[in-house]
Design a protein that fits this description.
heterodimer; A: alpha+beta; seven-stranded mixed beta sheet; 14 helices; globular; B: 164 residues; 5 helices
């Protein structure tokens, strides 16, 4: 009664069906251990003399710790050690410091100010779990309760309390420039002016706890050779190893991490809070120490998928063509960054969903509130906005009186289309999915839509990056100072006071894994001698090796000195996924000519602030693109070829389907 | 104050000392060393600590260790007969009914209790029998299918386990 049905009529020419393993049922390697109870989860490693560690947690959303008295707890029976924040060698971290993204903002054990209900303020190590629980109750903490903020947009107001002192504006700093992540593609404002309908919607998703059956935890013990062993439930062993080594100021070679068997994770076991705690306990006591959450802690302080709020504004023509889509997104990071900053980068790369829309803009905010910090969960960064997009598509269909499946097919991206984050869409299949869904659901669609294909009618003019209107609104601190009223992309256009000869190019930056700090530390202005300029990339080495971030998004490192051959003074606002090293062309000769290498470059965009009338021309297909210089096997100006048979693409890294 | 308690675990006589108020889950895991019952909630809501006490399913996290004096306890760690897997274990393996495996021990014991009493259960009987066991990743359908397949096999019918 399998629910999977293979539709092999689609893309049949791209598939081998003579594979030995893929597509064939096989016995799981771990099943025998699971059914016999022999599988060892972290807590199944029994240690003689195991000690138990528990935390006292803040009862307040937001409070300053005035004083703490542990004298009573210290003298209770079975208490081996009280562990305070001062005992943590490096008591400040952010998860993504491991890849150089964001600033340290969270203590392992808080010493100054708690910013969410349940934040640990002290830990107790005892012979039994009960003794540890009782001792936690005996710790006296005096708090100065502070005003708290629990709503993302309230947190953006100038009068909101500062949640996270490392980010005093209550927003993560993107690229050291903006209080949000920008995406600009085309000119949504101008397109809205031409649209037959404007369809607006607001969508929200509450936090969701991953709720694995096994709660998070770790056991650490002294090992031979002056090392420490750590059995852990982590989903991310090398995150946990790296973070533990940092917090404990140890060499990672002195830590022996054993994981790999996780009793359900769903993203809730990446935060690496337990391993450093258990290790610290083992180091301080010289004995095996277990630090694990009970079910209540798992549900209350275990980092959930964060709450999200999305506003979508579409410009739609009477025939259902969506010509513009604008997003304003708020991610509730809770009190600390964890992975929310990254979720937004990931989400921005996903906009505007699986549709080809010629004008897209988005502002997405990673907002700090006095709620439990948020982290990974199953597609985080994508799930919330996808829900919003699809709910909004139905709203658009209703507005223009169109079959919602046909609306999706009409606007679906196709192979060869340029996506808003400057990648060519490939291996698209939304049209086929919609067709099968309609068929399965007995939902009639017109013959015209039943005949459409992801393989046809994509690319061409749809492969080009449109002329893109850029702005520099929402700089770090402006909102706190009351100089920015709105958070939507198209509502702030009048704020800028920059001289017209200077412009800061912006694009959706996939900055994961790059040297963001190095890039951002440079001055950000780009002298512009009265001519057009486009988003700039650091890369001046033709063979620069693209780096792949954790989300698989490719980006190119900047040159060692951060310079750009075309821009002596200059710097950029943010990096782009570009890999094309050609000089920025003079606009007179080559307006917006996209030339591509294995990854499409960002096309230099023309924005001439002195002459462009408003509204600007919307998404004018460029003139004949500059011919490829022939050094690469991949020629985007030729018909797009699918799969690994196209020239110059390794079949192992192409990410192409079924190969 | 430690107290002595004696019981049979999977047919083997055990004598251990337990703390006053210690639960059976801790006694089996740490006192005896059989880690096949798992801690999931400690509140009797998830069922992953399910063991059989004199053939009836019990939540070991809510059972005081002192109360099992002289009783027969079965855990999933003792379900196999030497190298010979129990039909439930075989069906769970073949039917892809154990993904992360954490709830599996409790599921197996709840299912064994059902099949011991009712060799020919309906699908609804199976669903009722495992209604106290929470699974977060496998999904319940393969588990129910596997239990029904095992029941069929134990009755001597052909094995109908579903292959993923």
């Amino acid at each position: 009664m399998s629910s999977i049905e293979f539709r092999k009529e689609y893309f049949a020419d791209e598939r081998d069906d003579d594979l030995d393993v893929v597509g064939k049922p096989t016995q799981r390697q771990d099943a025998l251990g699971h059914v016999t109870g022999r599988t060892k989860y972290f807590d199944d490693h029994l240690f003689e003399g195991l000690l138990h560690m528990r935390c006292l947690r803040s009862p307040h959303h937001h409070a300053r710790i005035r004083s703490m008295d542990v004298s009573l707890a210290q003298n209770m029976p079975g208490i081996i050690r009280i562990v305070r924040g001062e005992d943590v060698p490096v008591n400040m971290n952010t998860m993504l410091d491991i890849i150089g993204f964001g600033r340290d903002d969270e203590m392992l054990i808080q010493t100054k100010k708690v910013a969410y209900k349940g934040e640990p303020v002290v830990a107790v190590i005892a012979e039994t779990e009960l003794q540890a629980r009782n001792a936690c109750k005996a710790v006296r903490v005096e708090y100065e309760v502070l005003p708290h903020v629990l709503d993302v947009e309230e947190a953006l107001t100038p009068q909101a309390p500062v949640v996270n002192e490392e980010y005093p504006n209550n927003t993560f700093d993107y690229h050291e420039l903006y209080d949000h992540q920008k995406l600009r593609f085309g000119d949504t404002e101008a397109a809205f002016a031409q649209a037959d309908h404007i369809v607006e919607g607001e969508y929200e998703m509450s936090p969701i706890e991953q709720a694995p059956t096994e709660t998070c935890g770790a056991i650490a013990a002294p090992e031979t050779n002056n090392r420490y062993v750590c059995h852990t439930s982590t989903q991310a062993l090398f995150f946990s190893l790296g973070i533990s080594a940092k917090l404990l100021a140890m060499n990672s070679s002195d830590l022996h991490f054993i994981g790999g068997t996780v009793g359900g994770g769903f993203g809730g076991k990446v935060d690496s809070l337990h391993e450093p705690m258990a290790l610290l306990g083992a180091i301080l006591t010289g004995r095996p120490v277990k630090f694990t959450w009970d079910r209540q802690e798992e549900m209350q302080v275990g980092a959930p998928r964060g709450a999200e709020r999305w506003r979508i504004r579409d410009g739609v023509m009477n025939d259902g063509t969506i010509i513009a889509r604008e997003f304003t997104g708020f991610f509730d990071a809770g009190a600390y960054t964890r992975l929310s900053s990254y979720a937004i980068i990931k989400g921005t790369g996903h906009l505007p969903g699986p549709y080809s829309i010629p004008n897209v803009s988005s502002n997405v905010y990673c907002v700090y509130t006095n709620r439990t910090p948020a982290t990974a969960m199953r597609g985080f960064g994508i799930t919330g906005v996808d829900f919003s997009i699809e709910a909004h598509m139905d709203k658009v269909a209703e507005k223009v009186g169109m079959n919602p499946i046909e609306l999706r097919i009409k606007n679906a991206y196709r192979d060869g289309d340029m996506k808003a984050h400057r990648r060519i869409a490939k291996n698209t299949a939304l049209i086929e999915c919609c067709q099968v869904a309609a068929q399965k659901g007995n939902w009639a669609i017109g013959l015209e839509f039943a005949a459409m294909s992801s393989l046809k009618d994509g690319g061409g003019a749809r492969a080009h990056v449109p002329q893109t209107k850029i702005d520099q609104e929402g700089r770090i601190g402006e909102r706190k100072a009351g100089r920015v009223a709105s958070s939507a992309p198209s509502k702030n256009g009048q704020i800028s006071s920059k001289p017209s000869s200077t412009i800061t190019p912006v694009s959706a930056s996939m900055a994961m894994g790059q040297d963001v700090k190095n890039i951002a530390g440079k001055p950000n202005k780009l002298a512009m001698p009265g001519q057009s300029i486009g988003p700039v990339h650091h890369d001046q080495t033709p063979q620069a090796t693209p780096a792949i971030g954790p989300d698989g998004v490719m980006s190119v490192p900047n040159t060692p000195d951060g310079s750009n051959p075309n821009n002596s003074s200059g710097q950029i606002a943010s990096t782009t996924p570009a890999s094309h090293p050609a000089p920025i062309p003079a606009p007179a000769q080559t307006p917006a000519s996209p030339t591509y290498r294995p990854q499409p470059s960002i096309a230099p965009q023309s924005v001439n602030p002195q002459s462009t009338p408003s509204p600007q021309v919307v998404n004018v297909p460029p003139d004949t693109p500059k011919p490829d210089d022939g050094s690469s096997g991949y020629r985007p100006n030729e018909p797009f070829t699918r799969g690994t048979k196209r020239p110059g693409v390794s079949r192992f890294i192409s990410g192409s389907r079924r190969r | 104050m430690k107290k002595p308690v004696q019981f049979n675990l999977n047919g083997i006589h055990k004598a251990i000392f337990v703390d006053g108020g210690e639960n059976l889950l801790t006694a089996i895991r740490h006192g005896v060393g059989d880690t096949s019952p798992k801690y999931g909630c400690g509140q009797g809501t998830c069922g992953t600590c399910t063991v059989l006490i004199d053939g009836k399913p019990h939540l070991s996290c809510l059972t005081l260790a002192e109360t099992v004096e002289g009783k027969n306890i079965n855990s999933s760690g003792g379900l196999a007969n030497g190298p010979q897997l129990h039909p439930l274990q075989e069906a769970f393996m073949e039917g892809f009914a154990a993904q992360c495996g954490y709830c599996t021990g409790g599921m197996l014991m709840a299912a064994k209790s059902l099949l011991d009493q009712n060799p020919n259960p309906t699908r609804d009987d199976v669903i009722e029998a495992i209604s106290g066991n929470i699974c977060r990743c496998t999904g319940y359908e393969p588990i129910v299918d596997a239990i029904l397949a095992a029941a069929q096999k134990m009755r001597g019918g052909s094995y109908g386990g579903r292959v993923a």
